[in-house]
Design a protein that fits this description.
Length: about 210
């Protein structure tokens, strides 16, 4: 038989004003995976599973970007922010609102198109068929067979160590640029808040 708790019962006001921003977990995951990938590509590194890590790292960077943009958008366009549009449309909106000037064809913003394309390919998976699928070629039988065996879809050709590094750093650069333009301190984007218990009185035991 379970013993009764000897501590007195109380009436209390419990406050839990704590906020969690998913972009922090996503960017941490992207950094963790990037560092694993960096280690794997060292001369003595273990390359087992590195392609899967690169897929995950790029996906996390893409999700981080969307989280970053949504955070700034909701702060800057209170009550007017539409989080149902594309990432690029959201950035265009912030560009107008914050008076930003940048070139979509230069890093870090040029990275967005390729990163979002990879993200969408894995978030909304569908078959990727080769183009062309039938053609006339010259070569030895073994050479032609090797070409088929070594074929990789364009999507996987984009999943590289260099692009993992580029995407991670460019997303972080975009994030810091948006914060600066919006006048938001980086500390304001951290998870946190306050919690407390205020005792209002004791509950007298029955009998």
């Amino acid at each position: 038989m379970r013993e009764a708790d000897p501590r007195p019962m109380v009436v209390a006001k419990v406050t839990n004003d704590f906020v969690t921003y998913p972009h922090n977990a996503l960017s941490s995951a992207a950094l963790y995976l990037k560092e694993r990938i960096d280690r794997a590509h060292q001369p003595d590194g273990d390359m087992k599973g590195v392609t899967l890590d690169m897929i995950a790292a790029l996906t996390m960077s893409a999700f981080s970007l969307e989280g970053y943009v949504n955070y700034v958008g909701e702060r800057v366009l209170v009550g007017r922010w539409d989080d149902r549009t594309s990432v690029k449309a959201k950035i265009k909106c912030l560009k107008r609102e914050l008076g930003l000037t940048f070139d979509w064809n230069k890093r870090p913003y040029s990275t967005i198109k390729k990163l979002v394309w990879i993200r969408n390919a894995f978030a909304h998976p569908k078959p990727h068929r080769p183009d062309p699928r039938e053609y006339v070629a010259e070569g030895t039988f073994d050479g032609l067979k090797r070409g088929l065996r070594d074929y990789q879809p364009g999507l996987m050709l984009a999943v590289t160590h260099d692009f993992v590094t580029e995407a991670f750093h460019d997303v972080e650069e975009i994030w810091l640029g948006l914060l600066t333009a919006a006048g938001i301190g980086e500390y304001e984007t951290w998870d946190g808040g306050s919690q407390g218990i205020e005792i209002l009185g004791d509950i007298e035991p029955l009998g």
